[in-house]
Amino acid sequence: MSLPRYPEYKDSGVEWLGEVPGHWAVKPVKAVATCNDEVLGKSTTADYEIEYVEISGVDAGRGITSTDIIPFGDAPSRARRRVQDGDVLVSTVRTYLRAVAPVNNPPGNMIASTGFAVIRPRIIAPHFLGYLFQAEFVISEVIARSVGVSYPAINASDLMRVNVPIPLAEEQQTIATFLDCETGKIDALIAEQQRLVELLAEKRQAVISHAVTKGLPPNAPMKDSGIEWLGEVPEHWEVPYFCFLISNAELGENHDSAEGNEGVPVMKMGNIDRGFVKLHKVEYLPEGIDISESMFLKDGDFLFNTRNSLDLVGKVAIWRGELLKATYNSNILRIVFNSSKVATSAFMNYFFNSDLGLSQLRSLAKGTTSVAAIYYKDLTSLRVMLPPPAEQYAIVTHLDIACAQFDTLTSEANRAITLLQERRSALISAAVTGKIDVRGIKPHQNIAVMAAIVAE
C-alpha cells in the first residue's frame, strides 16, 4: 500500500531532516523545552533515600530498565539531576549507546546521573517530545555533534540547539497516541522473543548439566558418590579431585597492551565467555616484545578466567586457534589435562558450564562484587564427575549437536528482535517527521502501514 501522506510539504531548511508537512514548524529543542532545571542539593541529608538512574540503567528503545535505591550519603557525586513526569533523559556521554528514556510517573525521589541531560517539555506535548528523542534522525544528530573518540560527549547547550519538527499541538497528541498504541504492540512481540531466548538458554543449560552429571543413557545404573552435596552418579564414573586431572597449569604474563590490529594478540578476561572465546575486542602487544614460545596458545588449550567480577569469575573456554601467535595475560590460567584421564578438554569445558560446575566455582570465588578471584590452590579442590574416555567423546558430540540447534534457534529469535526494533525505530521516525500522516489511519491499516515504512 502507499503511505498516507500530508497534502503539502516544505523544505525544513535542515539537510538531515529533509521535507516536513507544510504547516509544521522547525525549531531548536530549546524553543519548546528546558534542560537540567532541578538538582538535588548538597545539603540533602545522608539518610535520604533516592532511586538512582545511571547511564547503564537506560537501554535504547526500552527506556529505564534498572534503578538503584540507595541513601544519598552512599550515592555517587553524579547523582544530582531531579526528574519529574514527562521529562526525557538523554545521555550526553557515550552517546553511541543511544541511552534515551522518557520518564513516566516516576517516584518523587528519582534522581538521574549528571551524565544525562534532563529535557523538560515547556510548550510541547511530553509524549511527543519523548518520541522525538527516540527518532533516528535526532539520535544520529546528537551522536554527530558529540566530541571525543573513546568517550564521545555532547554538552547540554549543543543538545538543545538540535532542530526538530514541531506539529500543531493537537497533532502532537494524535501522533503520540498512535505511537503509544503501535509501539506497545511491537514491544509485546519483542518481549515474547526475549522470553523465548531466555527459555532456550534455560533448556540449553539443563541439557548440558544433565549430560555431564548423569550421562546419555536414560536408565544408566547409578551409585552413591559418597559426597553429600553431589548425590548419585553413574556407577562406572569416577569423581576425582580436579588437581588429579591436570598435567600443567600456567598463568599468563603481565604486559602493557592496547587496541589495534598490529602486534601480538593477547587474550584477556573480557575475551573469555561462558564456553567460548570472544574476539570482538582484542588487544595487542607491541611487535618485538620478548615472549617465550611456551606462552603462545595452542589449539585445545583450556583457558580459565581467574579474576573478574563476582558473577563472571571462573569463565572457561577452549582455544581453537582463532588467531595466529596469540598469548594470554595474568588473569587467565592455561590448563593442560592428563590425557589418560581427560580424553578431550571439550568435556571439561561443558562440565565447568554445567550447574554443578558453576555452583562449585561460585563457592570458591573470593572478593567483592566488582573484583573477585579464584585461586589455583582452591581450584584444585574441585570435584569433577568423570566418565570413561569414550563416553566423554560421546557426550561432547551429543552436546555439540544439541547446543548448535539451541544456538540456531536463539540466533533466529535475536534476528526477529532486531527486525522488530528496526520497525519500531522506523515507525517513530516516520511519524514524528511527518513522513506519514497518522491522523486518518484506522486500526486495521496499521500493520500494512508499518510494513510499507520498513520497505522504504
In a few lines, what is going on in this structure?
This protein is an alpha+beta fold and 456 residues long.
Strand content: 15-25%
**What is the tally of beta strands?**
27
Structural class by SSE content:
alpha+beta
| Rg over C-alpha atoms, rounded to the nearest angstrom | 28 Å
- Shape, per Cα inertia axes: elongated
Number of domains: 2
Q: Which parts are unreliable, with pLDDT below 50 for 5 consecutive residues or more?
A: none
Assign the CATH topology of the largest domain: Adenine-n6-DNA-methyltransferase TaqI, Chain A, domain 2
CA distance, first residue to last residue? 11 Å
Q: What top-tier CATH class of the largest domain fits best? A: Alpha Beta
Strand order of the largest sheet: 4-13-10-11
Sheet with the most strands?
4 strands, antiparallel
Helical residue percent band: 25-40%
Tell me the number of helical segments per DSSP (H or I, 4 or more residues long).
9
In CATH, the architecture of the largest domain is Alpha-Beta Complex
Quaternary organisation of the protein chains: single chain
Find the CATH superfamily of the largest domain.
Answer: DNA methylase specificity domains
Mean of the pLDDT scores?
90
